């Protein structure tokens, strides 16, 4: 598992200080390769090299690609927030070539009085030297009742683009525009949550939906545990290679139901408060949670 470094910041100065500790990358150009002991120079390609890890990360287009460093990206974003006079706190996680930053806007809360729910709005930022992730800016909420982090990766305000020389020139302007778009979009959450709460189903059937949605047994068991449901394998006498799966609960009766909202929060609770997860696993599980948020139960596989 990659070592994760975490920095908590509340100002441009603190973000700059943290960014100085993040991995730095350079472009290797010209890029040479060895063929039978003879060096050849490539004219269309260059390499990206992580200086801190002493690791070659990726071969990229010589003309179309330009490295945007973690520090450059975070500094530009924090400067845009200062220019917009928005107070924030940032949680920066550095993992290998990737940095994931969750920003919360403490003074920009969303209150759904009819649902007795309150959220803090925010944004998730991702930057990666190895191109496993493009530059990403997406809406994020924190549900105050349980401090669950909720990422909206399918929202139309999400910004997702590969590094390029054009992006490097325009990134400050793009960031300011996306921040404004995202902040104006959060109120639409109320409709999604109201619909999500209205959908309910018997808990055993809900467990089967979760089993289809979360295929990794390790994560599924922990997520179902948040709903006080156990998933156990029982012997199948007719086919010992394929044991049957039984769902048990000490707190729920056969008549009890769960809502789509409860299922959604069981996943976000695990991704937020569970064991430390690799970025790609956390993002994968968040996408599954978002599918629950946006898809009526009748359309989910059971």
Helix content: 25-40%
Report how far the terminal alpha carbons are from each other.
Answer: 33 Å
The biggest beta sheet is recorded as: 7 strands, antiparallel
Q: Indicate the low-confidence ranges by residue numbers.
A: none
Number of individual domains = 2
Number of helices: 8
Proportion of β residues?
25-35%
Radius of gyration, CA atoms, in whole angstroms: 22 Å
Quaternary = single chain
Pattern of helices and strands? EHEEEEEHEEEEEEHHEHHEEEHH
Structural class assignment? alpha+beta
Overall geometry comes to globular
**E-strand count:** 16
Structure description:
- The chain is an alpha+beta fold and 302 residues long.
- It folds into two domains: 1-184, no CATH class; 199-299, no CATH class.
- The protein is built from eight helices and 16 strands.
- The protein has helices spanning 12-19, 70-83, 165-183, 189-198, 203-213, 217-225, 260-273, 279-294; strands at 4-9, 25-28, 31-35, 38-42, 45-50, 55-61, 89-95, 98-112, 117-128, 135-143, 148-151, 159-161, 200-202, 230-234, 244-248, 257-259.
- The strands form five sheets. Strands 1, 7, 8, 9, 10, 11 and 12 form a seven-stranded antiparallel β-sheet that branches. A three-stranded antiparallel β-sheet has the order 2-5-6, with no helix packed on it.
- Strand 5 and strand 6 (55-61) form a beta hairpin.
- It is globular.
- The two termini are 33 Å apart.
- The mean pLDDT is 86.
